[in-house]
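Cross-posting from the chemistry board since nobody answered there.

I work mostly on the small-molecule side, so proteins are not my area. We synthesized zinc ion and want a rough idea of how it might sit in this target. Sequence and SMILES are below. Is it possible to get a predicted 3D structure of the two together?
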Amino acid sequence: MRLKKLGCVALTVFLLSQTWITGSCIGVTGETCTHNGVTYCTYNHHILSGGVGQYGSFRRYYWIKNSTTNDQDMSNFFRSNITEAVNKWVNTSPGYPNVTTSISFRETSTQKDAMVEFHGFNNPMSDGRTEHRKYDNIVSPSSENWGWAIIYLNPYNSSLTERGQTGLAAHEFGHAMGLTHQYSSSMQNKSIMYPYASRKMEDGTTERNGPASVDCQTINHLYG
Ligand SMILES: [Zn+2]
Ligand SMILES: [Zn+2]
């Protein structure tokens, strides 16, 4: 269930939950908890209602917006990167220790079926941001669960490499599922949620383009 309705809402508590990356990703207020030595960064343990799927048995969907009057045509930007980014989340389970929550997302051509939508936007100050939504409202994820999310990606940032574009999509997808920033400098090579474009793979040289162990463990913590 997507918790999206089309009726009017008289009173809307309009709380922004958007995030930015321009070399850095700012504006995310999250909460930190530590269990058995692992630090999890979440929106106060709130989640995507209905979960992140169960590989092989329960699938959730994402949708990529094509050209409209207000958004950029995502069919020509990011599509392969978005697919790669989501698949990196879906395919992590066997590769990381202690990962017990299997994620299942697949692209749909039917917008209303999607729990995560990818839109384009053009903002010279921002490469990506995520809005958490319930019905038609933007909600504060630290205050309540959300039914779906819109990820905005900026196709005009020419400084992003292919790996960087995939990494950006994977980072924002993490926000859509309930992960917040891993601000500690020690996480630069250890989390897709490190909020700066300088995040790296464990080897310290290759740009990170997908989730790491702590990111999957945070999914376990939220949905396990
Ligand atoms: Zn972010
Ligand atoms: Zn916790």
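Reply from a structural biologist on the board:
Welcome over. Reading the output above for you: The first strand starts at residue 20 and ends at 21. Residues 5-24 have pLDDT under 50 and may be disordered. Happy to explain the token format if needed.
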